[in-house]
Amino acid sequence: MAFSLTLRLMLMGGVSAACTASLYSASTKPEAEPVFTAEQITFFEKNVRPVLAENCYSCHEGHKAKSGLMLNSRAGVMRGTDYKKVIIPGDPENSVLIKAIRHAAGAEPMPSKKPQLAANQIDALVQWVKMGAPWPKEAAGDHHAAWEDHWAFQKVAKPPVPAIASPKLKAANPVDAFVAAKLEKAGLEFAPPADRAVLGRRLYVTLTGLPPSFEELQAFVNDPSPNAPAKLIDDLLNSPHYGERWGRYWLDVARYSDTEGYQVGGKDYRFPYAFTYRDWVVDSLNADMPYDEFLKHQIAADRIAGADTGSKNLAALGFLTVGDTFISNKDLQTDDRIDVLTRGTLGLTVTCARCHDHKFDPIPTKDYYALYGVFNSSEIPEDLPVIGKASSEVEYAAYRGEVSKVEEKMNVFRKEVFEDMRKADRMREYLAFAQQSVKEDLNGDAFRGKAGQLKLRDRVASRWREFVKRHTATSKPHAVMVAWKEFSSLPKEGFEQASAGLKDKLTKEGSPTNAVIRNELAKRPAPKSMDDVLGLYADVFVTCISGKEPDNADWQAVRSVLLEPQSPMAVPVDQVDQFFTRKDTETMTRFRNEIKKIELSSPGAPPRAMVMNDKEKPGDMRIFIRGNQGRPGEVAPRGFLTFLGGQKFTNGSGREELANAIASRDNPLTPRVIVNRVWLQHFGSPLVSQTSDFGVQTPAPVQLDLLNWLSANFMEQGWSLKSLHRMILNSRTWQQSAVSTQDKDLKDADNTLLSRQSRQRLDYEAMRDAMIGVTGTLDASKMGGRPVALNAGDVNSRRSLYLIVDRFNQATVPAMFDFANPDTHSPQRYNTTVPQQALFLMNSPFMRDQSGKLATKLPQEGSAIDSQTITALYRKVLLREPKPEEVELAQRFVNDATDLQDKPPFLWKYGAGKQQRDASGKITGYEFIPFATYNGASKSRKWWSMSKDMPDKQWSYTQWSEGGGHPGSQHAAVLRWTSPFDGTIRISGRLDRDSPNGNGIRGLVISNKQGVLINDMVAPKSEKNMEIASLNVTRGEVIDFVVDSENGDTNSDAFDWRPAIYGIDEINGKTTLLTKSDDDFNDASHWPIKRPRPQNPLSQLVQVLLMSNEFQFVD
To answer: Quick one: 920 and 1050 in the same domain?
Structure first.
């Protein structure tokens, strides 16, 4: 159990000891059989099984498996070949299978009859072995034969509510009756009701994710009405914070993120408008939108909205569009959408049928591609629809002005590319290269490489190449291209000699050559090479596209050839992007990034919906054999899952029909899945163990009748989630305490019978929101809008829901506390206990800052921390009064912290010294006069002196800086250190007077208890070692480091002296640096400028309470 530490332990033992005790209190027992998480199974199904199926099954499947190695089951993989094992779970480097696919020494290269696997496929297999080779649970027998009897595939029917005989098991509502029936059979009872204080906090947290204030909780505790819980439930369900809390749960399901994921080419990967989906989810839940409508809008809002293109419900389509874009890989995008849809709403792992029929569930590959066709018939428009207004017309005008400037730059760039293709000299270059590539049969990389060398856009050149092929590689070329074909057939050697005769032939009366070409050829000397011919064509083509040619039949013929649809000259300026090179694309990406930056930051940018629309021509997909797009199989008509009816979709893409099928009352999965998700959040454990896999491998829940009754009632109540909450939260089952008994621990160890409530740790968002709430920095009234950057100045005034979610660069702290990975659909949060969590709570600047903020707001008389302060703190953080012994412990904690803080070994003092001598004239010490002024404005140098004037009329140049100082004519410069302990120290340091001028300085080390320890002259341009190898000191003993001028002459007496003090261990003689005067130079607050400021004792006490079990857990 994470952070299972009592407040008493923390206060007595300190933060460090308490957290260490909590983190390692539970021992782990090895499992007999490996257990894998849902994420690991998903990784296998999406990244490993397809590789095995495509590359390995043909040789290593079934009874004919080569060398006895079967790779179609985990048992076969673990058995290995007839001769040896092929994997060592957790150790890919020593696994034969990994060596084989890497073609490394010590194994036969695999696959044997195919190319080596791609790098990403090898990486996936390495990661899979490193995970321990996760694989779905396998069982014997034909699972497909039994699917019709599977509990989750049965139509939802409302079972009768059980009658309970025992008065001790009296039910408050039907939920309790179903639970009581199981308890009665097991000989158990409900736990006692939770007391009002516990129940009140539990309700606030479960429904809003925010703790109540002390006053709110006391009002509930003191409400004498027996209906007080029901009234509070209604009030909290009507709070706008309800939608924020429960919206976050749905965003886990929807793999919500404010960014696309990894991108290339410098593309800004942020989504400017993902937040509109997040806000739509919150608003819809607050409005209690029926769940069936909630789903339909997220699948087909564009079809439901119809002509209302500005409908705010269009934002719901973010469910399909806020996923990873996989660097524009359409196959992976579609797979991701199928996954989030089917696991999220139906609890089915349909994507497991991408490469083969589902191994366990009745989902053939054809069903996967039926859904694939639905999404392949949909597209995301370039211009997203506006679904709201900007904050003001003025700001909107400013936004449009900024965007227009960038759009104009984009249009100018397109025009430059467009016109570059049409220049006469560039036309010649393109035509010449097209002719060369046809002659030499240049293709692929060779073609692109040569085009790049010639600084030609390869896609333009490719169009010209096809143009030349089309019109010259034929026996009957177009009249415009006759001359080109004829001249191109002449050999390079002897071209000039044959050219004149060919020219005469082509220009004589009756020639099939187009008149424009014939006349232009006749005007010019006979071509000396093919380049001259291409130059002629370039000139004619440029004249044609410039619009300067005569409007007659001959020129119209040239234009018809030049502007045929396949010609590069037929592409209008606004479609010239298709010819962009990588460099062109990077230029355009920079422009698009500029627009995206404006959309992300401008207050005038109106909100837009991340929609998906139907394509004009929807179509069905062919099955990809073994998931390979290059091996198309039979057509899979767009439609729903076969075992759920297999309805064929004919209305557009089919998304609207798909939405209706999923949200149908006849669908046995949809209501059960959402009821199970809601139950999970209220109890900490779901009724069905796998929240996103209701397939035949998932056993029926212990409380199946309860699940069925809740699902049926949910639909009867109009698919109202708030009604479902009321039914659960008003039950005796939910309102019971978390107290267990020895009998329950034995008979209901996992609490599957619900004999008590489950204690739950705050999730990351609830923990952070509670902290910034109790410390007063949260402004809960700020709702919605653009995501808040983690380094924004107001970040701690916003709920965690509104912080940016970056799937490419995921924040460390949320992930540390089990935040849902936005890379893929998240079935549920899996609570972990790791040392990093404790380290964050102990040492993070966030914890320190929040604790300090609350500490400053607590009532305090002077520096004392009395019972009034502690009472106020307990009310604020723990929502209760402290017990007398807790007040005593807290005061002792604060006093101990104060003692430690008051006497650190690194505090130095700076001042002037007036020399003192005895009767014999011997120096006995210096009267210490503290400096009054700290000069810290300069970045390069900081120092202490008596005033800002230098020299000062009275104190001359007397000063001390980080690395040294300067004595005055009448006063020495003094650096003072006070020992905080009894012990032995070593003093080191060199006194350096760098200037050759003047008469030198005197350096002294003086103890107020032991007298002058060192007294040395340092001549000009020299230095002295001022070390004391061993010195016994007592607590409070003062050591002064003094520099005095000689005979009052201060000429060039600047010096460098950086004393360091080490502690010496009296047992082993080892030394430890305690402080170095330059590193620990103190500022005006008398604290070292290079050391972090200490956390004051009251702030430390606040932090202890924020870390406590009582704050971190909900009973």
So the answer is: yes
In 10 A of CB 546, how many CB atoms? 10
Based on the fold, state whether residues 378 and 434 are members of the same structural domain. no
Here the CATH number for the domain that contains residue 974 is 2.60.120
As to burial, measured by CB atoms within 10 angstroms (0-12 exposed, 13-18 middle, 19+ buried), residue 1014 is: middle
Q: What is residue 1031's predicted lDDT score, i.e. its pLDDT?
A: 97
State the pTM of this model.
Answer: 0.79
Whether residue 943 lies inside any domain: the answer is yes
Q: Do 663 and 517 fall within a single domain?
A: no
C-beta separation of 967 from 1000 below 8 A:
no
Contact 305, 293 (CB under 8 A): no
Q: Dig out the tokens for 35 from the structure.
A: 């257990």
In the chain, the number of structural domains is 4
pLDDT in tens, 115-168: 899 999 999 999 999 999 999 876 544 445 578 899 999 999 999 999 998 999
CA distance 822 to 255: 5
Show the CA angle centred on residue 821, arms to residues 820 and 822, nearest 5°: 105
Last residue of a domain, one of 516, 544, 571: 571
Domain termination residue (choose one: 99, 134, 169): 134
Q: Which residues of 564-594 are buried (b: 16+ CB within 10 A; e: fewer)?
A: eeebbbebeeeebeebbbeebeebbbbbebb
- Asked if 725 contacts 233 with a C-beta cutoff of 8 angstroms, the reply is yes
Tell whether 615 and 559 lie within a shared domain. Answer: no
Together in a domain, 616 and 538:
no
C-alpha 1114/C-alpha 878 separation (Å) is 11
d(CA 644, CA 823): 29
Give the integer Cα–Cα distance in Å for 470 and 481. Answer: 10
In a domain, 482, yes or no: yes
The reply to whether omega before 686 is within 30° of 0 (cis) is no
Among residues 950, 598, 557, 652, the alpha carbon closest in space to that of 786 is found at 598
Same domain as 449, residue 362:
no
In whole angstroms, give the CA distance from residue 102 to residue 121: 11
- Helix, strand, or coil (residue 1059): coil
Same domain, 124 and 273: no
Residue 167 lies in a domain: no
> Domain check: are 480 and 356 in the same one?
no
Half-sphere exposure of 602 (CA within 13 A, CB side): 24
Residues in the chain: 1115
pLDDT digits (tens, 9 = 90+) for 1002-1052: 999 999 999 999 999 999 999 999 999 999 999 999 999 999 998 889 999
Q: HSE on the CB side for 88, CA within 13 Å?
A: 7
- Distance between CA atoms of 925 and 1010, rounded to whole angstroms? 11
Closest CA to 1059 of 902, 908, 928: 908
Range of the domain at 920: 905-1076
The answer to whether 967 and 1043 are in contact (CB under 8 A) is: yes
Token digits of residue 935:
């000069």
Three-class secondary structure of residue 1083 per DSSP = coil
d(CA 825, CA 336): 8
Name the helix (H) or strand (E) containing 1011: strand 1011-1018
What are the Cα distances from residue 428, in Å, to 66, 96, 542, 572? 60, 58, 10, 20
Residue 28 pLDDT exceeds 80:
no
CB distance 158 to 708 below 8 Å: yes
- End-to-end CA distance of the chain: give it in Å, rounded: 13
Residue 650 corresponds to which tokens in the numbers above?
Answer: 């004919």
Give 985's strand partners.
1031, 1063
* 630 inside domain: yes
Distance CA 46, CA 96 (A): 23
Peptide bond into 111 cis (omega under 30): yes
Which residues have CB under 8 Å from 134's CB, separation 6+?
A: 34, 36, 37, 40, 41, 43, 44, 128
Instruction: Note whether 899 and 892 are within 8 A (CB).
Output: no
Q: Residue 370 is encoded by which pair of tokens?
A: 């039926």
